[in-house]
Amino acid sequence: MSPTLQITFLLNDELITTQVIPGMVALDYLRKVRQLTGSKEGCKEGDCGACTVIVGELQGDTVNYRPMTSCLLPMGELHGKHLVSIEGLNMEKLSPVQEAIHDCGGTQCGYCTPGFVVAMTAGLMDESIPLSKEGMDYAMSGNLCRCTGYRSIKAAGKQAIDKLAPLVKGQARIPALCEASALPSTFLEAADKLKSIPPIPDKPSGDSTPIVAGGTDLFVQRGEELPDSSPLLLNKSQAKATVDLGEELSLDARMTFESFARDPLVLANYPSVANYNPLMASWPIRTRATLAGNICNASPIADMTCLLLALEANLIIETSDGDECIALKDFYLGYKKLAKEASDLVKEIRIPKASGETHLNWEKVSKRRILDIATVNSAAKFEIVAGVIKSASLALGGVAATPLYLEKTSASLSGKELSPDLVRDALATAQTEFNPISDVRGSADYKRLLARQLLAAHFTTLFPETINSEELYASLR
């Protein structure tokens, strides 16, 4: 029998203390244990959003709420948190979001409807998401409608915004939404209830204990195994704030994608990161996926890892003999083989700070523009002073057994004056550094072409006055 863990958490409006299998996902707990069947099991891979819930974490005197897919959310991580399912949003009358879905004909088979309602409500609750059509689209980015009723659903989002924005703007979101009958009043009591829950100690790990950060990959890959196990769950809510070390930024390895793209210090150095984030995953996935999880999962097409390679990240690894530092580009020894022991933890990631002459770009090609795995991805960082490339770092994904740092290509650019000829030479050098294979996402030849075009795009995007895109691509035919 699987070992259990006693946790206390707030489920909708009820404070619960119970024994759970730590690896059991919240979707199964809601539907099978609590008989709360509003959250639907669609893909059970975090892609469709039918099982979306809202999770609140206490931060000081307030509760920070984020949407998450309950099919990838382990119960062992919910101690001291507020889990809100679709049932927890119900009141005597329909909320403005529910009413808008009804008025606009936003439901057909109904299977996706709970997830959309939860996601739209989460978007309204998040202070950083604008009360606009664009903000509502952002909130619904992780939800699919199998009946393709998107026009009606988006119309419902607009109706909800039009009604609520005048009532909420300029005020703290959650109290204002409660006042507008868009949220149950129980949300106003959540902080006090969560404060009453004592912490539980971290569980020590062993060599055979699976270590789970966000679980957005592991619970898909090992979905039959982890829900019945007792993995070491890294508490992302305890992630430390980013620290300015002078020449570097120190990032907690448990930092989520969403936190990374919103971090003030990260954005002060690399503002374009905010633009790449929506192309890496949906909002509910980004609230769980972590930097270290993406790195240690070691997928050859890991989006965040490719970006961190170009940022010249270094990893601080906690081992039985103390902390060790290793460059991310040296971390991969082969397919899914890492330069660490199974029980070692990546606890910190350091990236150099940008100078006034730093330029960063990230590119990705996939079958769908968003919410899809890359066929090939690439990232590049340049420091250019007076037209001369002081340093360059380029990375590729999807063309080798590991995420790939282009050592020779990066070195060939450093110290040279930026010119079309230099770019063409660099693209030729890059072709010697990888040997892609054919798979379901494309042939080897296609990936070679994609890699060349994406590498070229870094130059044409960042330096259009020097590198003309039409002329460069014409010369490559």
Automatic annotation (TrEMBL):
Q: What is this protein called?
A: FAD binding domain-containing protein
**Single GO term (MF):** oxidoreductase activity
Give all residue intervals belonging to the 2Fe-2S ferredoxin-type domain. 5-89
Source organism per UniProt: Pelagicoccus albus
Q: Which InterPro entries match?
A: 2Fe-2S-bd (IPR002888), 2Fe-2S-bd_dom_sf (IPR036884), 2Fe-2S_ferredoxin-like_sf (IPR036010), 2Fe-2S_ferredoxin-type (IPR001041), 2Fe2S_fd_BS (IPR006058), Ald_Oxase/xanthine_DH-like (IPR016208), Beta-grasp_dom_sf (IPR012675), CO_DH_flav_C (IPR005107)
Q: Which Pfam families is this protein grouped with? A: CO_deh_flav_C (PF03450), FAD_binding_5 (PF00941), Fer2 (PF00111), Fer2_2 (PF01799)
**Residue runs in coiled coils:** none
Q: Which SMART domains match?
A: CO_deh_flav_C
Q: What is the lineage of its organism?
A: Bacteria, Pseudomonadati, Verrucomicrobiota, Opitutia, Puniceicoccales
From what superkingdom does this record's organism come? Bacteria
Which keywords belong to this entry? FAD, Flavoprotein, Iron, Metal-binding, Oxidoreductase
Q: Where is each FAD-binding PCMH-type domain found?
A: 174-356
